[in-house]
Amino acid sequence: MGEQWGFYFDPDSCMGCNACAIACKNRHDTDAGHVDWRRVETVSEGEFPDYEETNVSLSCMHCEDAPCEEVCPTGAIEKRESDGIVTIDREKCIGCGYCGWACPYGAPQYGDDGLMQKCNLCLDKGPGSGADAPSKNEQQADGEALEPACVDECVGDALDAGPVGELLDKASQEAAERFEQNRTNVIIDSTGENSVTGMQGVRQATEDS
């Protein structure tokens, strides 16, 4: 198995500007409006005067046990051993929507053609790209790895991407321990004592959206 790639996200540095979501749409030329490979949700906690809001930038979590892959009836979705990125082969997709129902984060999106598309950690550009792309590790070794557009355009440096081992070096001990308990390919960090962070907060944001 190759080194797994993922995202690092620090909600304390996210200002909710949506530059990440816009950059993603621009790079992949996704359908306007309803197709969002990345989006920013706001999680609220408490009541006035002890009320807080936290911005959470969401895309595919590239889950270790990806539920979308498990329910796909045609085998179009793959959790790649080479880099841990979950990809979709749109030649096999029949647009049944099972993956969208199974994903707790709302990552699978459906364009005007009815076929699934989602974040591929910028393995390549465009819907359906990435399924047959070389691993991110190979791309990096060859100097051809695209930095994800969301990371490239993040104003507050709240997002990063890379091999998970390198991202863990950047994360706080608390975030690293939380990641180990609930493994995806996303590390969520925070220093705020009262911030709503981690996968519980992300799931709540998705349920409220």
UniProtKB/TrEMBL annotation:
Residues 5-33, 50-82, 84-113 form the 4Fe-4S ferredoxin-type domain. Pfam families: Fer4, Fer4_11. Residues 183-198 have a biased composition (Polar residues). Residues 183-209 are annotated as: Disordered. Keywords: 4Fe-4S, Electron transport, Iron, Iron-sulfur, Metal-binding, Repeat, Transport. One of its GO terms (molecular function) is metal ion binding. SUPFAM superfamilies: 4Fe-4S ferredoxins. InterPro entries: 4Fe4S_Fe-S-bd (IPR017896), 4Fe4S_Fe_S_CS (IPR017900), ET_IronSulfur_Cluster-Binding (IPR050954). Transmembrane segments: none annotated. The keyword Repeat applies. PANTHER family: ANAEROBIC DIMETHYL SULFOXIDE REDUCTASE CHAIN B-RELATED (PTHR43177:SF5), PROTEIN NRFC (PTHR43177). This is Fe-S-cluster-containing dehydrogenase component. The gene is hybA5.
